[in-house]
Amino acid sequence: MSGTTATVEQVVQARLIISSRRSALLPVTLRYRTDDPLAVRMVFPAEYSLDDAGESPGDPGDVGGPGGRHEPDRTGPDPDAGPGVEWVFARRLLAAGLDGPAGPGDVHVRPATERRTAVELRAPEGVALLHFTTPDLRRFLWRSHLAVPEGQEALNLDPDRELAELLG
What we know:
The protein is of the alpha+beta class. Helix content is 18%, strand content 33%. The protein contains three helices and seven strands, in the order E-E-E-E-H-E-E-E-H-H. A hairpin with a 2-residue loop joins strand 6 and strand 7. It is globular, with a radius of gyration of 16 Å. The model is unreliable at 52-82 (pLDDT under 50).
């Protein structure tokens, strides 16, 4: 394993679909870390998360709560993630979803139109549907593959760190 950690980060605009007639643009930070080579992260601004005050589903703040690893960042800035709600899921799921429906769990990715990709995030608090510009997602994946080529992720895995994270 390499001793150096690199991060690929890209801010893109997503369209949060609120209803058939309403949507909101929001900045989403896409993040890939070479020390966690199988995962990608989508970080949403904190104001778009469901809070404990009981916002109703369908409000503009409805991005869903917990992430792919079921933990929103509601306690303040994390030096690695920054403030907001972070969803963590497989890089290969994002790649597969650009060409066809993918995602059996809380995160579903699929082509929406020729130039848009839909990402659906499911949490106990509700479901959020977002549309991203497909070339933005392809550019991010391309940059992540420059950092760690597809098929070489195992070379960057740190089993001791992974075990420590699991055991908390």
